[in-house]
Structure formats: C-alpha cells, structure tokens
Amino acid sequence: MNLELLDFTRRALEQGLPRERISGALHDAGWSPADVNAALAAFAETDFPLPVPRPRPYLSAQEVFVYALMFTALYASAWNLGALVFRFIDLAVPDPARRVFHAVLMDGVRRNIAALVVAFPLFAFLLRHVHAAIDRDPTKRESRPRKWLTWLTLFIAAAALIGDVSALVYNVLGGELGARFLLKVATVAVIAGGTFGYFLADIRKDEAA
C-alpha cells in the first residue's frame, strides 16, 4: 500500500473527518477506488480518539506453500483435463495423415486421468481451505502470494485464449476448419475462459470488499 496515501488517511481520521469526505477527496485527487478503500480499511471504525490500525497481513512460509501448492494443482488439473479431452477427440475423430496407435493414446488417457484424480481434489480442498480462512479473517484477502499467483493465472489464461483465437483465425484464413481442430479450439476456450472468468470475479470481489 502507498505509504503517502496511508499517512494522509491516518492524519485525516485524526482530525475527525468523516470517511465519506476523505474518500471523496481522494477520489477527486485521482486515487483509484481500490486504493482508497484499502487505505480506509487499514483503520478500524471505532469511537477511539485516535485511528486504530487493523492488523496487516504478513508473508509467512506456510502461506506461500499453501498458495503455491494450490495453483500448481490448478495448472496440473487444467493441463491434464485439456490433454485428456484432446486424446478423446483423437480417438473419436482420427487424423488420416497422422497414424497414432490406439495403445499409445490409451496409455496417455490413463496418465491424464491419474494426474486429475490427484491434482483436482487437492486443488478443490486447498481452495475451500483458503476461502474458509478468508471468511474467518478478511485481511487474508490482501495476501501477497494470493494476489501475485491470481494475476499470474489470469495472464496464463489470457495468453492461452489469445493463442487459441489466433490459431482459429489462422485456420479460417487458410480454409482449414476440420472437426478435430474446432473441437480442440473449443476445449482450450472452455478451460482457459472458465479459469479466467473465475479468478477475474475473485479479484473483483476483493476490490469490492
């Protein structure tokens, strides 16, 4: 958080100015709503004569471990789900120009399913654990590992969507739109788009909190 903004907010509260007036002045000065809300949220709303700071989130090794493991499980789940669907598409709509043995495809299917059986329940469990911790202590929304990894996930999902649309446009221009290609494009769009939408909504929820 910007120290200048935090210091201004503290001094304004010491003068007894209403939060609405402080917020309006900061907005008029060009500060973003998220920055203004964060600065005001740093101080508890009490009748004490001086501004009472709220406990600030700190970076712990456990927190880094939990978020790193959760997002790694997410990436593994997304990758293996996409690969699994791709293999089913190859089985359902074979490519005449590319001979792939059925046994090789089925071995890949087993690997993807095995990875999903481990990774996705782990991700779901950790996500539930994180949300429960945030419900108990809303200051955990400001966790640095959580924010950095969430934005990294948005970047990866956006990059996948851009690549997906680019491949679609390329094939449209070349007049090559087979069923296999369209199904794979749709698979990437659903997985990457769903991931992007979920975490974008999560960030907006943080900004509104």
TrEMBL record:
TM region(s), chain numbering: 64-89, 109-127, 148-169, 181-201
Alphabetical keyword list: Membrane, Transmembrane, Transmembrane helix
Keyword Signal appears in the UniProt entry: no
Coiled coil ranges: none
Ranges where the DUF5671 domain occurs: 63-196
Xref: Pfam families: DUF5671
InterPro entries (alphabetical): DUF5671
Statement: the UniProt record of this protein carries the keyword NADP: no
Name the record gives this protein: DUF5671 domain-containing protein
